[in-house]
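[audit] Reproducing an earlier prediction to check determinism. Same input, same settings, fresh worker. If the tokens differ from the archived copy the diff job will pick it up downstream; this log only records the rerun itself.
[audit] input (271 residues):
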Amino acid sequence: MELNWCLNTLYIKPHDIKSKIETCSKFGFKGVELWVEEIEDDPKLVKKILNDNGVYACSVEKIVGWFENDGELMGVPSNHLKIMDECKRRMELASMIGSNKIIACPSFSHRGFHAPLNQGVDYFKELVDIGKSYEIEPVIEFMGQTGQINNISSVLKFLSFIDNSRTIVDAYHVWRGGDSMSNLFKLKLNQIGMLHISDASGSIPRLEHKDRDRLLPGDGCIDLKGFLKNISIIGYNGNISLGVYNPKFWELSIFEAVKLARDKCNELFAF
């Protein structure tokens, strides 16, 4: 099993983009998962820093609110055309730094409202069409703490209506959504767009666990070895991004944080 280890830069949020990319390269991460906010000021400079350090952008975070016509999380009016324009802008930015994927988050539940599934399907098809102009693939990520597309079965139902689309498979969201690692076998290889990985504290009830509580691999209760074993049986070879959004790691120097992440990944699965 060959995986390309990447690092989501929210893990090292306080640091500047140049330091993030240089340090990831130093410690053997082949790619980085960047956020729109990090690249929109000067995407050409970000592309140069990536190229100078031999690191690629495995994906860009993210487009949200498209499913339910809620512009709040992207800072635009809750209007379908405005939301799609913002999605288009973000896809163009991702393309400018050489990424070929952008994370598409499903319907959120923070307002107690879920859009109809067929609406989400229609709007996702629009995103796919927009992405073709920029050679960008919007990849939907099922999210365990949302109320609609929150597990493997629900994302497979969504994908069944859309030709040749894929999902991000995050070990954390598999656990948070109440799936077992054996349910990974419901997925076909061509339905997996990328992997995300992190651990979770067993002292926090699953349904109360939040992204900010995530831990580095091996420090929590998720069966990450089982996750990787089953993914290997499915036959996946490609990018796997470590995404730990816990503010406690922002207190470390960037050198300490990235070295610790690299060492934890090595313990789990050799680079």
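[audit] rerun output stored. Observation attached for the diff report: The two ends are 11 Å apart (CA to CA).
[audit] end
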